[in-house]
Amino acid sequence: MTKCGGCKKYIARADIAKCAKCTKCGTVYHPFCLKGGEEGTPNWVCPGCASGNQPPAPIVDAPVAEGMDSLELPEPVVSDGRHNSTANDTTEEFKVELGLEIRLFREELSAVREEIRLFRAEVKDLKSSFAATDERLSTLDSRVDVLEKRVMEGSGSRLEAVIAELRLELNEKDQELLGNDVEVSNLPEEAGENATHMIMAVATKLGVTLRESDIVSAERVGARRRAPGEGGDAGAGAAGRPRPLVVRFTRRAVKDELTAAARVRRGATSADLSQSSAPRPFYVNERLTKYNRQLYYQTREVGRRLSVL
C-alpha cells in the first residue's frame, strides 16, 4: 500500500483518486495534508521538491500565516495510475499463484494421507497374517509333540498294524492276478524242451484235453538248482533239481480242471512224456505268491511235526 508523503499514513485504495501526486518524485499526499493551492493544478510539485527536497509541513488544521501565499493544490491522482496499477497487478498475480500453490499442497497432502491410510491397512493385514501363521505353527508344534509322545509311549504299534494290513491286501491282490496260473514242480527239465508241448503232454497224461489256444504262456521260472553232491559242470544240469514249470491259462475253468485231475491221479510220474531222464513223480498245484508259498511250507512243517499230514 502507498504512504502519504505528509502524515506518513497508508492511503486506502479507494482514496487514491482523491490524492495528489508530485510530478517530480511521484510522492502521493492527502488533500488535507497540504497548505493552500487549488485542486487540479497541473504540473504540481510537492513542497519538498519545491524547497530543495525539504520535507513538507503537514497540516493540522492551523490557520495560514499572514504574509504567506497559499500553496497550490496538487494534481489529483488519476485512477489509471501507472505506478499503483502495476503494484496491484503484481499483488493479484502473487495471490493467484499463492492460491494455486496452496491448492496443490492440499492435494499432495491428501494423497499422502491416503497413502498413509493404505499403508496402515496393509500393516494391519500383515499383522493379522503373522498372527494366523504363528497360531498355525503353534498348532503344528502341539501335534508334533503329541505324535512324538505317542511314539515314545509305544503307540507306533498301530502304524505297524496298518502296514501289515496293507501288505496283506497287496498279497491278496497279487494272488488274484495268479488265479489262472498253475505250477508243475519236480518235472524233469531237459535242454531245448518246449514248455508248451510239455504242459500239453502232462494234461494228456492226467486225462485233460488241452488245446494250445488255452495256454497264454508256459515257462520255467527261477534259477537252475542242482542236487547235493553234484558237480558244477554243464552236463550235470539234467540231474539237478528241475525248476518249476509255470503255466497261465486263458480261463480259470481250464486251470481248475487240470488241478482237479492232478488230485485224482496223485503220484503220477514223468514216464511216457518222451523224456530221456529217469521218471519221477510231478505235482500240479495252484501258483502262489511268495508270502503264501512260505505260509504253505510253514503249515506243512507244522503238520508234519504234529503227524497230521
Automatic annotation (TrEMBL):
Which stretches does the entry tag as region Disordered?
221-240
- Give residue spans, biased composition: Gly residues: 229-238
- Coiled coil feature spans: 102-129
Keyword Endoplasmic reticulum among record annotations? no
- Which CDD domains is this protein grouped with? C1
Transmembrane portions of the chain: none
Q: What are the record keywords, sorted?
A: Coiled coil
Q: What is this protein called?
A: Zinc finger PHD-type domain-containing protein
